[in-house]
Specification:
The protein is α+β, with helices and mostly antiparallel strands. 37% of the residues lie in helices and 35% in strands. The protein contains 10 helices and 19 strands. A 3-stranded antiparallel sheet has the order 3-2-5, with no helix packed on it. The longest helix is centred in the last third of the chain and has 42 residues, at 296-337. The relative contact order is 0.06.
Length: 378
C-alpha cells in the first residue's frame, strides 16, 4: 500500500487520474491518496482560467453528468446559436456556433446567454452598445473576429453585403453583424460632393496635333443602391466615361477650333457623361478643362504666328494713326488759309510753346516787331 498526500489550493481544483482514467474532482484542501498497484496522478487547474480545456472534457460531458453539473458550467451550442459568456455580469467572450465547452464553477460567476442567429445577421441595438462599451475596457472581449462592427459617419452611408448580395443601405450610426455561417462585408459610401481628376490624357486632334489635357469634374451619388447594383465600381466607371467624352470632344476638332472655343470641350464632355450616367445613380455636377499642354515645336510655331499677327496689327494701327494725323493737318491748313485770325492764334500758340523752353528772352523794337519778324521767317 502506498500513501500520497496532495494539497489543492483554494483557487484551484484537482483532477484525480487512476492509471490515466478519470476518477473524481478534488476540491480545495489536503487529500490522502491510497494506491496498491495503481498509478495515481493529480492535475491541478487554476480557477482564474475558467475554461476547462482538457482531453477529458468530452468524456465528462458524455459519461459524468453529475460531476459536470456540480463542478462546471456546461455550454453546448447548435449550428445557428452564438453564446455570450459573462463573468460577474461583464461580457468577456463570444462563443461560435457548435461550441462544446466546460467552465469551472468557483471564483467567477460564469453565465452563458444563447442567441439564435438563424433569422438575422444583425445584432440587437442593446448588444451593439455593449460591444462598443467593451472597447473602452482594458480587458478585450474574445471572439470578436466573428462580428463585423461598423461605424457609419453622418455624411455617408454603407452598403451591407451578405453572401455576395446587397442586403440594404445603412444610415449613419453604429452597427454590428454576425459573421458566423455568413459572408458579411460592408462598404462605406461618401454622400458629399466629390472631386475627380482625369490627368495626363494624350489625344490627337483632327489635324493630327498631339495634345495633353487635364480635366476636373465634381459628382455625387443620387441613388447608392442603384449605382452599386448596376456598376461594380461607380467611381471608376465615371472616370472611364470622362475619358471617352474627352477623346470625343478633342479628336473630332482641329487645334484652331479648340483654341478659339475652349468651352466646347466642357460642353461635349458634360453632355456625353450625363447621357451615359442616366439611370445609374450618379449625377455629374460640373466639368472643366484645367489646362491644355502643347508639344514643344507647336508652342514655337504658335508663338511665331501670334507674334506675326500682333506685328501686323501694330503696323495697321500705326498707318491708321499716321493717316489720321495727316488728314488733321490738312484740315487745319485749309482753315487757316481763309482765316487770318486763326493763323494768328496758331502763331501765338507756337510762340508760347517756344517760350516755355527758353530761360531768358531779350526783345528789341517791341512785341509787334517780334511777331512781325516771326511771320516773316515763316
Amino acid at each position: 500500500m502506498q500513501f500520497k498526500r496532495v494539497k489543492v489550493k483554494k483557487n484551484e481544483r484537482g483532477l484525480l487520474l487512476r492509471n490515466g482514467d478519470f476518477e473524481r474532482v478534488l476540491p480545495p484542501g489536503r487529500h490522502w491518496l491510497v494506491s496498491a498497484f495503481d498509478e495515481l496522478r493529480v492535475e491541478t487547474f487554476a480557477l482564474e482560467q475558467a475554461a476547462f480545456t482538457h482531453g477529458l472534457a468530452d468524456y465528462l460531458m458524455a459519461h459524468e453528468p453529475e460531476v459536470v453539473a456540480r463542478e462546471f458550467v456546461r455550454v453546448e451550442l447548435g449550428e445557428t446559436q452564438v453564446g455570450l459568456r459573462t463573468e460577474h455580469g461583464l461580457l468577456v467572450e463570444l462563443l461560435a456556433p457548435g461550441t462544446r465547452r466546460l467552465y469551472w464553477r468557483g471564483l467567477a460567476d460564469v453565465q452563458v446567454e444563447v442567441v439564435n442567429i438563424a433569422d438575422s445577421a444583425e445584432l440587437a441595438p442593446a448588444l451593439v452598445q455593449r460591444l462598443v462599451q467593451t472597447q473602452l475596457r482594458q480587458r478585450a472581449v474574445a471572439g470578436l473576429a466573428g462580428v463585423l462592427q461598423l461605424q457609419v459617419p453622418e455624411h455617408g452611408a454603407a452598403l451591407l453585403w451578405v453572401d455576395g448580395k446587397v442586403e440594404k443601405l445603412l444610415a449613419p450610426g453604429s452597427y454590428a453583424f454576425w459573421k458566423f455561417n455568413r459572408n458579411v462585408s460592408a462598404e462605406l459610401v461618401d454622400l458629399r460632393l466629390q472631386a475627380l481628376d482625369v490627368a495626363g490624357q494624350d489625344i490627337l486632334t483632327r489635324d493630327k496635333v498631339a495634345l495633353r489635357l487635364n480635366l476636373a469634374a465634381t459628382w455625387r451619388f443620387t441613388d447608392v443602391l442603384q449605382a452599386y447594383t448596376k456598376l461594380q465600381k461607380p467611381a471608376e466607371h465615371l472616370y472611364r466615361e470622362l475619358q471617352f467624352g474627352l477623346r470625343a470632344a478633342v479628336g473630332t476638332r482641329t487645334l484652331d477650333e479648340l483654341l478659339e472655343n475652349k468651352g466646347v470641350i466642357d460642353e461635349v464632355v458634360s453632355a456625353h457623361v450625363r447621357q451615359k450616367m442616366q439611370g445609374h445613380g450618379l449625377a455629374l455636377e460640373s466639368v472643366g478643362v484645367k489646362d491644355i499642354v502643347l508639344p514643344g515645336e507647336m508652342k514655337t510655331i504658335l508663338a511665331q504666328v501670334v507674334e506675326a499677327q500682333k506685328a501686323a496689327e501694330a503696323n495697321v494701327i500705326r498707318r491708321r494713326e499716321e493717316t489720321a494725323a495727316t488728314r488733321s493737318l490738312l484740315n487745319t491748313a485749309k482753315v487757316m488759309e481763309g482765316n487770318p485770325v486763326a493763323l494768328r492764334m496758331k502763331e501765338l500758340e507756337t510762340l508760347e510753346r517756344v517760350a516755355e523752353r527758353i530761360d531768358k528772352i531779350s526783345v528789341f523794337g517791341g512785341l509787334d516787331q517780334v511777331l512781325n519778324g516771326l511771320v516773316k521767317l515763316r
